[in-house]
Design a protein that fits this description.
about 140 residues, mainly beta, 2 helices
Length: about 140
């Protein structure tokens, strides 16, 4: 089950949406579903460059979910698909969480009506708050 949040700025009229969690498809998560139905084209390219050659016959576990992240460099807030693929020998590959500015992104958990430590994309102030606006599967 996933959550949808409306992110609003208390200083200006900026509004954005962030999704967290995963849907029913994650229950039977497999590599093909992640690759073909969940990831965007740039994410597919990145994943293909990350995994070793011949990995597909050695996959033992696949996990993915939507997560809220903030950038340590520019404080940008966004929702990203985080994935983890474990091979038969226990070797695990995870998505590198980098912002478009090149900074490292950290996971945050959103709480209804809580202030968010991230900058507003419109006015640049740290005056964002989250409101739970829905659930998704």
């Amino acid at each position: 089950m996933g959550s949808l949040y409306d992110i609003t700025c208390e200083r200006c009229p900026a509004v954005m949406s962030i999704s967290e969690g995963y849907g029913f498809r994650n229950v039977h998560s497999n590599f093909e579903d992640l690759f073909l139905n969940i990831l965007t084209t740039p994410e597919r390219k990145s994943l293909s460059e990350t995994l070793p050659e011949g990995f597909d016959s050695r996959i033992s576990k696949v996990n993915w979910s939507r997560k809220a992240v903030t950038c340590a460099t520019c404080s940008k807030l966004e929702s990203r698909t985080h994935w983890s693929i474990t091979l038969a020998g226990g070797e695990t590959y995870e998505r590198e969480m980098l912002c478009s500015c090149g900074g490292l992104q950290a996971f945050i958990h959103l709480h209804p009506y809580a202030k968010i430590k991230a900058n507003c994309p419109s006015c640049g102030e740290e005056t964002l708050k989250a409101t739970l606006s829905g659930m998704w599967d």
